[in-house]
Amino acid sequence: MRIPAHSVCTAIRDDIVSGVYERGTRLTEELLARRYGVSRVPVREALRTLEAEGFVVTRRHAGACVAEPTEQDAADLLEIRALLEPLAAARAAQRRTEAHLKVLRGLVRLGKERSRHGGTEDLRSLDGWFHETLTQASSSPGLITLLTQLRHKIAWMYVTEPQAAPAQTWSERAAVVDAVARGDAERARTLTVLHAERAAVAHRPRGGVRGGRVRESQHAVNTVSARN
C-alpha cells in the first residue's frame, strides 16, 4: 500500500509547526519513514515539498533539516498576510457563493456567542475556520495556496495571545461578511486591512531553540509500515 506523499507532508509539517521537531533538527528519510510507518519514497517527496515551502532546508554534509527562520523572516510573514488577506476578501465579495455566506455567518454567530461566554480554545478554532472560509470564498487557487502556507508558517513562528476584546474582533468580522454579501469588494478590502493590523498585535514570536531533540509525536500516517 502506497501512502500519498501529501499525507506524509501534512504529518511532518504539523509536527514541525507543533514543535515535535525543533528548529535545526536533522530529518533523515529512514527515521521519518519508520516514525510515520511509510516507505522512503513519499518521505522524499514530502521533504522536497516542505523545502519549497520553507519549513526544511538541505545542508551540505547534513541533508534535510528543519529550517531556522530569523526574526525578519517572521516579521515578513505578517506583512505579506496583511497584503494578501484583503485581496482574498475583495475577491470573495465578487465570487462567493451562498454556501460560503452561510458558513461565514454561522461562524460569526458562534464567535459572538463564545465571546460572551469565554472559551479561548473555541475562539482560536473559530478564528482559523473563519479565515480559511473567507479565503476559500475568493475562489482563487493560487491565493488559497499562498494564504494556507502563510498560516502554517505563522503558527510555527508565532504564539497568538488571547484576544483582548474578542467581541470587537467578531464585530469587525461581521462587517467584513456584510461587505462580502453585498458584493462591495473595496469595503471588504478596507475592513480586512484594519482587522489584519489589529490582529498582528496579538502575535508574539516564538523562541527558537537549536538542537536535535524530538518530542513524542501524536501524528501517525499509517499504522503499518510500507515497504519501498
From TrEMBL:
Tell me where the signal peptide lies.
none
Listed Gene3D superfamilies: GntR ligand-binding domain-like (1.20.120.530), Winged helix-like DNA-binding domain superfamily/Winged helix DNA-binding domain (1.10.10.10)
SMART domains given for it?
A: FCD, HTH_GNTR
UniProt keyword list = DNA-binding, Transcription, Transcription regulation
Keyword Acetylation belongs to the record: no
Return the Polar residues bias intervals: 219-228
Q: Highest taxon of the source? A: Bacteria
Q: Which PANTHER family match?
A: GLUCONATE OPERON TRANSCRIPTIONAL REPRESSOR (PTHR43537:SF24), TRANSCRIPTIONAL REGULATOR, GNTR FAMILY (PTHR43537)
Instruction: Return the protein name.
Output: GntR family transcriptional regulator
